[in-house]
Write a structure and sequence with these properties.
There is one protein chain. This protein is of the alpha+beta class. About 35% of the residues lie in helices and about 15% in strands. It contains eight helices and seven strands; from the N terminus they run H-E-H-H-E-E-E-H-H-E-E-E-H-H-H. A seven-stranded antiparallel sheet has the order 1-2-3-4-5-6-7, with helices on both faces. A hairpin with a 5-residue loop joins strand 3 and strand 4. Helix 6 crosses helix 7 and helix 6 packs across helix 8. The two termini are about 20 Å apart.
Length: about 210
């Protein structure tokens, strides 16, 4: 599920990151995460490397495709600096491989950090079985925590389009670097034009009473 262009996009965007190509979202992981408070859910995913992408600010993305597509941006809830900022605060230069002392100090900073006052997790779901015209869009975005926000979509997102959406909304400086790069001309196709439209039966009369994205 990890988009093939992830490393190239992140390099051009100037975003340090980790990828876990072996990770698979299982039914057990879904059940475990669903019952946990948000901060504990993030911590478990961080500790067990339950992510496909982890940004330098410790926010993560999970891509699920079974039984249906569901892509989850889990924003780090901790008030902790990024690894790069933390290393700079120690008067050191960032390196791809840093020593065990820095790693231990950063782990301690994570363990003792307080919670941020505001976070905005984002999730894409495509759920044909729960579709209700004008009430529960077949494809939609959840924004935030513990609310009923479902922004309807006219097309089905892909892992790449979701990653680009997160870069645009959560990392605008990095998004601007992408727009100034030679990748810009292909971004529109990945974000909108190449996305498959939903079957017509999932766009009934009541669905036109609200704005649908893409």
């Amino acid at each position: 599920m990890l988009p093939a262009k992830t490393d190239a996009l992140m390099r051009v965007a100037g975003l340090r990151h980790k990828v876990n190509r072996e990770f698979v979202v299982t039914a057990e992981i879904i059940r475990t995460q669903r019952v946990l408070p948000y901060d504990r859910m993030w911590k478990l995913a961080h500790d067990r490397k339950w992510f496909h992408i982890q940004f330098e600010d410790l926010s993560i993305i999970q891509f699920q495709n079974n039984p249906s597509p569901s892509f989850h941006f889990i924003e780090c809830p901790l008030d902790v600096p990024s690894l790069g900022d933390f290393i700079a605060s120690l008067g050191k230069e960032y390196r791809a491989r840093y020593d065990s002392v820095v790693a231990e100090l950063y782990d301690e900073a994570i363990e003792t950090a307080g919670l941020r006052p505001y976070i905005t997790p984002i999730r894409f779901d495509r759920d044909f079985g729960s579709y209700r015209s004008g009430v529960h869009p077949a494809a939609h975005l959840h924004i935030g925590i513990d609310n009923n926000i479902r922004l309807g979509l006219a097309r089905e997102m892909t892992p790449l389009s979701f990653l680009l959406f997160i870069l645009r909304q959560k990392y605008p400086s990095s998004w601007e670097r992408l727009l100034r790069s030679n990748l810009a001309s292909s971004l529109v196709r990945s974000i909108r034009d190449s996305l498959p439209p939903l079957p017509k039966q999932y766009g009934q009369d009541f669905d036109f009473c609200e704005i649908a994205l893409i």
